[in-house]
Design a protein that fits this description.
Shape of chain A: globular
CATH superfamily of chain A: MetI-like
Helix content of chain A: 55-70%
Number of domains of chain B: 2
Distance between the termini of chain B: 11 Å
Number of strands of chain B: 0
CATH class of chain A: Mainly Alpha
Order of helices and strands of chain A: HHHHHHHHHH
CATH topology of the largest domain in chain B: MetI-like fold
Distance between the termini of chain A: 47 Å
Mean pLDDT of chain A: 82
Shape of chain B: globular
CATH superfamily of the largest domain in chain B: MetI-like
Order of helices and strands of chain B: HHHHHHHHHHHH
Structural class of chain A: mainly alpha
Largest sheet of chain A: none
Chains: A mainly alpha, B mainly alpha, C alpha/beta
Strand content of chain A: under 5%
Strand content of chain B: under 5%
Structural class of chain B: mainly alpha
CATH architecture of the largest domain in chain B: Orthogonal Bundle
Oligomer: heterotrimer
Largest interface: A-B, 60 and 73 residues
Radius of gyration of chain B: 24 Å
Radius of gyration of chain A: 24 Å
Low-confidence stretches of chain A: 274-283
Largest sheet of chain B: none
């Protein structure tokens, strides 16, 4: 398959790659121990502390660097588990149809409708140890339903396509049909669902850390914000304490969304923002009024 | 009608599922945090209160699970959600009843504003595809990637701490007595501006994007081309033919986005110490107030289900294909 | 009497270097009250042509040359109108009152969220500002009656109607303002054969009654032969042959026309073997040099891959663009005729 990386996807992948790199080497390149207290209390950014320091003299830059790993690991693990769940439920429902479909669809609809955040909060707070893995599991348990719904609809339409019907008529096993005839056509949808779930997981994890449900001794961008909020960083005007973490979240989220736009446009070319519609002549394309650009000019 | 009945039945099942999750969770998960809590408050709890907490969390080892389940439902129907430890000795039901109106009005107003605004921008952006509005898309993406609560923090830092234009916390000025007085309503509105704007700004992008994409898709439908061919005024084609159809997925998707909207609103309330459910939940989480957390989860879920049913009614009114005409 | 004249019309998809030439220098005339059939395989540019002349092509379609001259009864005082030169406002007024369109895909050309009455009413509200609501309803009833639908269907939504009924509604709508020209773009492809025939026969009776001209586009050449007065065959965005329907059916001049005729069973007359045309229509981004049909043409010879033949008259009523019927400008040694 010919796959040209579109500029949006390219940008997104680039930024994501940068964060993955930081996640891998962050703890080694961090100039300080993120939890170590230092003599410089609540200082704005400087050469020694690029993102400033906290009330107890901790280096915010090191906290962000070290915290990247937690964010990405939870995001990717939760995304992976949720995607597997959504593929299993969605494809099965769409392919089998009938009662199995009814039951599985109802199940995913229940999970879609129940507000995820309060549910995750109570699940996690009943657990004695809110480790990263537990958080990832809780997030994936609530985040799989959207993907399942989309995949079910796609599978349903794929099932009626000729090649699947033909393979079915020759008496292929159901699982072989699903793996070899249906799944390859769902790649883009699954990929986009995965990226979407990772966004959801990252935001959820940071939120849980921020409100103090997750283990606040694990560094991630949410815990940075938790400490900032609890130490009145705002009232003290310590903007450097919460701005870097927020921007990192937004940047990572934007990168993931851009990757998803690329996938969406790959699947549905009509969504592309600017094809080569406007050349140098720049005729305004207007719905319902085909522009007339007489270039030749042999007749007036 | 069958459509609505089916939906209503589904919401009943969902409500049942949420209630059952609430029943099962404390019984399934390891550890006994609730018992510790009750023990700590032992001296101050009445026998009735203890009994109700035992029903809530299944601490009566002697009783069979079905009996516990039955009692749990009985308590629910009496409106007994147990006692809050944070706001001891107020009942969970009272705490929720006090904070729910704040959340409902904040969320209701901001959601409507955000939906209408986002949809209108989306209609124009999709209709005038290739215009400068497309340049807004990366910006809206960036905004939709910002967590609600962080935007709230920034809003407080800029508008409350630095500019001192709006209050940083609370639902009304400390001296004002709640009631239907001009003073109170004015103060409440003033306090709602920052949290409200925060919610609108971070949620509007989603609606813009969804609507734009649907407009682009719908614009090439035959009935839109036919409307152009009929020589109808452009506004009429854009609104009645394109937007009217493009908005349907937004409305049916509305129900599904509600969970996210609720989550976002709760967080904004936490950041602004707004006297709604979210702030109460925040306090409950920090105090490990299990009855309150569970009660809030239940109420929020039920409220979301009701909102979903409303969205279904709207969809029914908008899409003739779901109406059965005899 | 000519009602519409298309001169040198060209359409590109996209602009600049990678533009695709979907229609190239097409000349066509439509006489008042006649049925002109446009035939060609899918992707030949026949629908693009019809959409371009009403300026309904979606982006990235651009009209790059030509004129579409409309000689209406109403505009006769100041000569013909160039549709391509109209402002959006003038174009809106022109549309539907002079040229209406019955679209491809009977199922989707009605707005699913509006009733039949609302959609008919929209036409009157846009073009007949002074019409009262009561008069609009009355006129809508008449129109439904005209196409054989009972008036109680006015309050129906499209999804409550059968495919055939929807297309009848579309036809009723197309006739609402008594236009001079009705463009029918694959009007019956989604319908079954019986309904298709009923609708076309209805349409032809209405034409005799009301006197409008029809541009009838379909890939089904047997329908065209039966229902059109004149046929233009389109290949790779060019008109390759134009002739009265009967003559094309009897003896098509262009090998492509013959191929098309042989790929459909004849409805009447003697049986012929169905041969079809080998190969597929050219990718418009890479149109073959010379006559675009030459790679698939059974009679291709010397000049065909070098020079593009022009559409030249062959007798009084017909013309063709084929080296079999003209002499190559460069190689006068070429063969004259078959």
């Amino acid at each position: 398959m010919r796959f040209r990386v579109n500029p949006k996807t390219g940008t997104g992948l680039g930024v994501l790659g940068f964060f993955v790199l930081i996640a891998a080497i962050g703890p080694w390149i961090a100039p300080y121990d993120p939890s170590a207290m230092g003599p410089d209390l609540l200082r704005p950014p400087s050469m020694r502390h690029p993102f400033g320091t906290t009330q107890t003299g901790q280096d915010v830059f090191s906290q962000i660097l070290v915290g990247t790993r937690g964010v990405l690991v939870v995001g990717l693990v939760a995304g992976l588990i949720a995607t597997v769940l959504s593929v299993v439920v969605g494809v099965t429902a769409g392919f089998l149809g009938g009662t199995a479909d009814e039951v599985l669809s109802a199940l995913s609809n229940v999970f879609l409708v129940v507000p995820a955040l309060p549910l995750i909060i109570i699940v996690v707070s009943f657990l004695p140890d809110a480790s990263d893995l537990v958080i990832a599991l809780a997030i994936s348990a609530t985040g799989w339903a959207w993907g399942a719904r989309v995949l079910r609809a796609q599978t349903l339409s794929l099932r009626q396509r000729d090649h699947v019907e033909a393979a079915r008529a020759t008496g292929e096993h159901t699982w072989r049909l699903i793996v070899f005839e249906v799944m390859p056509n769902l790649t883009a949808v699954i990929a986009s669902g995965f990226v979407g779930t990772v966004i959801f997981a990252v935001l959820s994890e940071i939120t849980l850390s921020f409100i103090g449900v997750a283990n606040i001794s694990n560094w991630n961008w949410g815990t940075v914000l938790f400490w900032a909020q609890n130490n009145q960083a705002l009232a003290q005007g310590a903007w450097w304490w919460f701005v870097p973490a927020g921007l990192s979240i937004a940047l990572l989220g934007t990168a993931l969304s851009l990757i998803n736009f690329g996938i969406d446009e790959f699947v549905n070319p009509r969504l592309r923002t600017s094809g080569r519609v406007r050349g140098e002549k720049g005729a305004r394309t207007r719905a319902g009024f085909t522009p007339v650009v007489r270039t030749g000019g042999d007749r007036s | 009608m069958t459509f609505l009945l089916r939906r209503a039945a589904f919401y009943l099942v969902t409500a049942w599922a949420a209630i059952t999750i609430n029943f099962v969770l404390p019984r399934m998960l390891p550890g006994d945090p609730v018992q510790t809590m009750i023990t700590r408050f032992q001296g101050r709890l009445s026998a009735d209160a203890i009994a109700s907490l035992h029903v809530l969390f299944g601490l009566d080892a002697g009783e069979s699970l079905p009996t516990q389940y039955w009692k749990y439902w009985e308590n629910l129907f009496r409106g007994d959600l147990g006692l809050s430890f944070t706001f001891f000795p107020t009942t969970v039901t009272d705490v929720v009843a006090q904070s729910l109106p704040w959340t409902l009005s904040l969320m209701g107003v901001t959601t409507v504003i955000s939906f209408v605004l986002g949809t209108l921008i989306g209609v124009y952006a999709g209709w005038r595809r290739g215009s400068w509005l497309d340049g807004l898309l990366p910006v809206t993406t960036f905004f939709s990637a910002i967590p609600y609560f962080w935007l709230g923090l920034i809003a407080i830092a800029v508008f409350a701490v630095n500019l001192r234009a709006f209050p940083a916390a609370g639902g009304y000025a400390p001296g004002v007595v709640p009631g239907f007085t001009a003073e109170f309503v004015g103060s409440a509105l003033y306090h709602a501006v920052l949290p409200g704007v925060t919610i609108v700004v971070s949620s509007v992008a989603g609606w813009v994007l969804g609507m734009r994409n649907m407009m682009v898709t719908v614009s090439s439908e035959d009935y839109v081309v036919a409307a152009h061919a009929k020589g109808l005024p452009e506004r009429r084609v854009m609104l009645r033919y394109a937007a009217r159809n493009a908005v349907l997925p937004s409305v049916s998707g509305f129900a599904l986005s509600l969970g996210f909207i609720v989550g976002g609103t709760l967080l904004v309330e936490m950041v602004f110490s707004y006297p709604g459910i979210g702030f109460v939940l925040f306090q409950a989480v920090n105090a490990k107030d299990y009855p309150l957390m569970q009660g809030i989860f239940l109420i929020i879920t039920l409220a979301v289900l009701v909102a979903n049913l409303l969205a279904d009614v709207v969809y029914l009114l908008l899409d003739p294909r779901t109406r059965k005409v005899s | 009497m000519t009602v519409l004249e298309i001169r040198d019309l060209s359409v590109d998809y996209g602009q600049g270097d990678d533009a695709v030439h979907a229609v190239s220098s097409v000349d066509l005339t439509l006489e008042r009250g006649e049925v002109l059939g446009l035939a060609g395989e899918s992707g030949s540019g026949k629908s693009t042509l019809a959409h371009a002349m009403t300026r309904l092509l979606p982006p990235p379609g651009v009209i790059t040359s030509g004129e579409v001259l409309y000689h209406g009864r109403r505009s006769s005082s100041d000569g013909p109108v160039d549709v391509l030169g109209l402002t959006p406002k003038e174009l809106r007024a022109f549309r539907w009152s002079e040229v209406s369109v019955v679209f491809q895909g009977a199922m989707n050309s009605l707005n699913p969220v509006s009733t039949v009455e609302q959609q008919l009413g929209d036409v009157f509200r846009a073009h007949r500002r002074d019409m009262t609501a009561a008069r609009r309803t009355e006129r809508s009833r008449e129109l439904l009656d005209l196409v054989g639908i009972s008036a109680d269907r006015l309050s129906a939504y499209p999804h409550q109607l059968s495919g055939g009924t929807r297309q009848r509604v579309m036809i009723a709508m197309a006739l609402a303002l008594e236009p001079e020209i009705v463009v029918m773009d694959e009007p019956t492809t989604a319908l079954d054969v019986v309904v298709q025939r009923q609708i076309l026969e209805k349409m032809m009776r209405l034409r005799e009654q009301l006197g409008f001209a029809v541009v009838f586009i379909t890939h089904d050449i047997s329908l065209l032969v039966e229902f059109s007065d004149r046929i233009a065959i389109v290949y790779a965005g060019r008109v390759v042959e134009q002739a009265p329907a009967r003559e094309i059916y009897r003896a098509a001049a262009h090998p492509y026309s013959r191929g098309l005729l042989n790929s459909f069973p004849a409805l009447h007359g003697e049986r012929r073997p169905l041969t079809g045309i080998p190969g597929s229509p050219p990718d418009l981004r890479h149109v073959p040099s010379g006559c675009p049909f030459h790679p698939r043409c059974p009679s291709a010879f010397d000049p065909c891959d070098q020079d593009t033949p022009a559409l030249v008259p062959l007798g009084e009523h017909r013309s063709a663009a084929c080296w079999l019927h003209t002499t190559s400008p460069r190689r006068r040694s070429g063969v004259g005729a078959t």
